[in-house]
Amino acid sequence: MEDVKGEKVTKETGLWLEEAAAPYKVFKAAGLDVTIASLSGGEVPVDAGSKQGDFYTEDCKAFDEGAATKGLLSSTKKLADLAKNIKSYDAIYLAGGFGTIGDFKGSEELTSIITKAFEEGVIVAAVCHGPVGLLGVKEGKESALKGMAVTGFSSAEEKAVGYSEKNSVQAEMEKLGAVYTCAAEPFHPHVVTAEKNGAICVTGQNPASSKGAAEKVVELIKKKKTPPPTTGGGVIILCTNTAKIELEDVKGETVTKDTGVWLEEAAAPYKVFKDGGLEVTVASLSGGEVPVDAASKQGDFYTEDCKAFEEGEATKGLLSSTPKLSELAKNLKSYDAIFLAGGFGTIGDFKGSKDLAAILAQAFKEGVIVGAVCHGPIGLVGVEEEGKESALKGMAVTGFSSAEEKAVGYSDKNSVQAEMEKVGAVYSCADAPFKSHVVTAEKDGKVCVTGQNPASSKGAAEKVLELIKKKNAKAE
Question: Per the record's keyword annotation, is Thylakoid included, yes or no (predicted)?
Fold first, then answer.
């Protein structure tokens, strides 16, 4: 290998033990049969560095000392023999270690087997230096990694351990056109899941990502084996059409804000509902394009769910042309739930909308579950019961708090909290701003789930999904 000085050095290497031991434990705990193999069969050497200090984790010790595992690396099967019936396996997981540069990289045999795995629907995963085994895989005449979201041992990590980054996993992946990402800091866990033309690939950046990558593989295997539940007509996620709005700031001055949907508040629920086997329709009050608040695509606000929503083949165009809610509402009873995504834009069109209030009143009346998150619950404020009293009076709810409104620079006079309290709702929030908080309420047959802020998006959607499953189970 070449070190950071550009000199050739010989390195004693092999498997990095944690990258086999941690996945082994995850897979066995999930009830899966696990076979450890190698390209040549026989003994698998272990990098001595992986058995020193903190690198030698409890999982490593258990693997080395366990009665069922302590001899597994001394006599492994050849991958080629197992690959004769590769379709019978759920996944193939490429453990790392610098040794993979010597046999995984450039192996036509491994490339052929991974290609076959992708074609047969077998999940392919790799961690740290293991992803070098993916470099030769092609789709037609171009790399299968081109345009695929991936990770692996980074150039910064390569330099940090004393080796040149010229041919790092990151560099090799980027040469092929892969969309490489890594953690904000070297040696922090980072796992990427990608699906491209039916091929499913999970990659982990470094040893610290071994467990997470394996857990993701287990999740995908379970999802693949579990048929979607029968859940009726699915969910409508309602988003704002408002791209610009005037607000009062904390100084009492009127300011114009570029806004739209807060992306996580649509993306996270979308994933929850789809993973739960539901049909999901993204709609808006006016139909057409849903603007996205640019701030929701910056830094930590731009979550993995957001990225997947924007880049996924099935989702990346959903916000550009949405159906009108009023059209869907003609058959509202066929839906399981309607979920109001937030963003300051909702103050411009959800708030005060008689059409939306009427549709939500209809939803409550017909037993359709209503969910809303952050500023989305502003759409509930105008809903009235037949006696002209607010449907929220006496109902337990939450939404973006007055404290959170002030924290982001705006007056709390007309916050979601203030508006809800004006109509007699029983408002509650987390013990600190921006923490997740979800409230479920049932009043006179109306079922309503509200989430306080972006951090509550996933939890609110999960609660809606739970209620849908419970409702449908009773109906069967």
Answer: no
Provide CATH 3.40.50.880 ranges for the chain. 18-222, 235-475
Comparing CA positions, the residue from 401, 449, 406 lying closest to residue 428 is 401
CA separation, residue 101 to residues 46, 54, 107, 163 (Å): 14, 24, 10, 13
Contact 150, 178 (CB under 8 A): yes
Q: Indicate the CATH number of 235-475 among 1.10.760.10, 3.20.20.70, 3.40.50.880, 3.90.1150.10.
A: 3.40.50.880
Residue in the structure block whose two tokens are 């509402």 = 329
Residue 308 tokens read as 């997947």
Cβ(216)–Cβ(191) below 8 Å: yes
Q: What is the pLDDT of residues 423-442, one digit of tens each?
A: 999 999 999 999 999 999 99
Right CATH for 18-222 from 3.40.50.150, 3.40.430.10, 3.30.390.50, 3.40.50.880: 3.40.50.880
DSSP for residue 250: T
- Side-chain-facing half-sphere of 316: CA atoms under 13 Å: 6
Q: Note the pLDDT tens digit of each residue in 346-370.
A: 999 999 999 999 999 999 999 999 9
Residue 223, pLDDT > 90, answer: no
At how many degrees (to 10) do helices 304-311 and 264-275 cross?
Answer: 80
| First-residue to last-residue Cα distance in the chain | 63
Q: How far apart are CA 101 and CA 97, in angstroms?
A: 8
Mean pLDDT taken over the chain = 94
Closest to 38 measured CA to CA, from 90, 1, 85, 93: 93
- Asked whether 181 and 190 are in contact (CB, 8 A), the reply is yes
pLDDT per residue as tens digits for the range 254-283: 999 999 999 999 999 999 999 999 999 999
Q: What is the pLDDT of residues 81-135, one digit of tens each?
A: 999 999 999 999 999 999 999 999 999 999 999 999 999 999 999 999 999 999 9
Look up tokens 């940090």; give the residue: 160
- The pLDDT-based confidence of 232 (bands split at 50, 70, 90) is very low
